[in-house]
Design brief:
Monomer. By secondary structure, the protein is an alpha/beta fold. 29% of the residues lie in helices and 26% in strands. It has helices spanning 14-30, 44-47, 53-56, 64-71, 131-140, 153-161, 172-177, 221-236, 282-294, and strands at residues 4-11, 34-41, 77-81, 95-99, 106-109, 126-127, 146-147, 167-171, 184-187, 202-206, 245-252, 255-264, 269-278. A hairpin with a 2-residue loop joins strand 11 and strand 12 (255-264). Bound molecules: the ligand NCc1[nH]cc(CCC(=O)O)c1CC(=O)O.
């Protein structure tokens, strides 16, 4: 019998392709009747490397070119780091599956051959452009110096090893999926550093008209609930790209616990607070926590 063919789109970075292949493998295992073909695209976020993301402006810089491919019918599904996807979903391009979350934590990476000195307070150039990471590093190590960095993981590690940075903060899951786990010198717990909404989650986006029943086997329900809670929290806070914001949810049985970090632009203070409820209320939990924290009622 003729196999049904699905064209799978990915960014062309080492990490994006490794992540996409992981999802493709899982789809193949569950659907022997489906043939998959990988297509890669360079995205705006990969091409403009001399500006921080909040300065380039606009949303969805790592997904735009793939969205266009999906809408044009050149691609059937696209695999993305959920963290890189805009909070508002394009109704034509819904997320059809959330792939089982990887390690959600942020980690410290030292230049090749160097050991973690324990404190980061003596460092003068910790590489991260994320306002979320900067704020939480400053909380733990007020004396540490920060330096902005752009580029994909490989580019960032090259800059680190060439001596341009004292250390980097990166996502554990990205390093692991790119086969670079041995570069991790320290894990920050989700309490020390609240992860970004969606960190470690892969989302499979599909055209609205596509029959996506073949994706059921790669959708993890608890990951989907966590994603929904985290993203509704950020969306309710208007998730400006340059304001520090973090959201991390865990599911235990029927219960979902969501922790959020919110930065008040007026008082320049930040809060961390949590809410627990039924996992099926994920979206409302995110909204309730956001309203509570915005009102400063916590
Ligand atoms: N912002 C870039 C980006 N988008 C997704 C990941 C890693 C994978 C993930 O967080 O799910 C990374 C790199 C990083 O933050 O270290």
């Amino acid at each position: 019998m003729e196999k049904r063919k699905i064209i799978v789109g990915s960014r062309d970075s080492v990490l994006a392709v490794a992540q996409t292949k992981l999802v493709m493998e899982a789809i193949r295992r569950a659907n022997p009747g489906i043939e998959l073909e990988l297509v890669t695209r360079k995205t705006t976020g990969d091409m403009i490397l001399d500006k921080t993301l909040d300065k380039i402006g606009g949303k969805g810089l790592f997904v735009k070119e793939l969205d266009q491919g999906l809408l044009a019918g050149e691609i059937d599904i696209a695999v993305h780091s959920l963290k890189d996807m805009p909070m508002e979903e394009n109704p034509e391009l819904p997320i059809a599956a959330f792939f089982m979350r990887g390690d959600p934590r942020d980690v410290l990476v030292m230049p090749a051959g160097q050991k973690d000195p324990g404190t980061l307070d003596g460092m003068d150039a910790i590489g991260t452009s994320s306002a979320r990471r900067q704020l939480q590093i400053r909380d733990m190590y007020p004396e540490a110096g920060l330096k902005s960095i752009r580029g994909n993981i490989i580019t960032r590690l090259d800059k680190l090893d060439r001596g341009e940075y004292s250390a980097l903060v990166l996502a554990a899951s990205g390093l692991m999926r790119a086969g670079l786990e041995d570069r991790i010198s320290r894990y920050f717990s989700p309490e020390e550093m609240v992860p970004a909404a969606g960190q470690g989650i892969l989302a499979v986006q599909a055209r609205r008209d596509l029959d996506v029943s073949f994706l059921e086997a790669v959708n993890d329900r608890n990951t989907a609930f966590a994603a929904e809670a985290e993203r509704s929290f950020v969306a309710a806070l208007d998730g400006g790209c340059s304001s520090p914001i973090a959201a991390y949810a865990t599911v235990d049985g029927e219960k979902l616990k969501l922790t959020g970090l919110y930065f008040n632009e007026d008082t320049k203070e930040h809060l961390v607070d949590s809410i627990t409820g039924d996992r099926t209320e994920a979206k409302q939990l995110g909204q309730v926590l956001a309203v509570r924290m915005k009102g400063g009622l916590s």
